[in-house]
Amino acid sequence: MKKKNVIIFTFLLLISFFSFNIFKISQHKQTIKEQIKVLPEFSFSSVKENHKNISSNIFFKSKTVIIHFNSTCHFCQEEVQLLKDHEELLKSLDINIVLISEEDTNILQEFLKENELYNSDFQLLKSNIGDFYKLFGTSQVPTAFLYNANGKLIKTITGLSKFELITQTFLEDEKVNSLH
């Protein structure tokens, strides 16, 4: 009888533990969801500008695409090439591109060189491991966060995004905002 009670008690304890963890994870996801509704404050090291800290404040009042990426990710490489191919159109639409990675600075500098991004208007920022996840709640690459000129999140795109989806999202947001 005692053994049966111990087993039941252990089972209930495990159920309680797992339930509590599921609740905490759900609560964390909700906190992140609220946190990223508006462009969160951050400061990461610029790979192009000799480790100068770049703050998210410079992106307020402008349309911004923040892309979490990794230079070894095939889809990330495609995404960067797609954006680079349309850089002039992005510039004409006043859309900033901010690439953020947790990789070593030397690897990111090599990525800049290989992809001829040193002369582009794209920002390439290095975050410390885990910092991007703490702010945006994802470690998946590529993930793009589209913020309008008011700093409001208008779309999150997980995986390789179509260029037309990015531009269309910003154009639709401008139409909606112009009606108000």
From TrEMBL:
Please indicate which superkingdom the organism of origin belongs to.
Bacteria
Q: Enumerate the UniProt keywords alphabetically.
A: Membrane, Transmembrane, Transmembrane helix
Q: Which Pfam families match?
A: Redoxin
The Redoxin domain covers: 39-160
Q: What GO molecular function terms would the record report? A: oxidoreductase activity
Transmembrane spans: 6-23
Identify the Gene3D superfamilies for this entry.
Glutaredoxin
Instruction: Check the record and name the InterPro entries matching this protein.
Output: Redoxin, Thioredoxin-like_sf
Q: Does the keyword Glycoprotein apply?
A: no
Q: What is this protein called?
A: Redoxin domain-containing protein
Report the source organism.
Answer: Flammeovirga pacifica
Source species taxonomy? Bacteria, Pseudomonadati, Bacteroidota, Cytophagia, Cytophagales
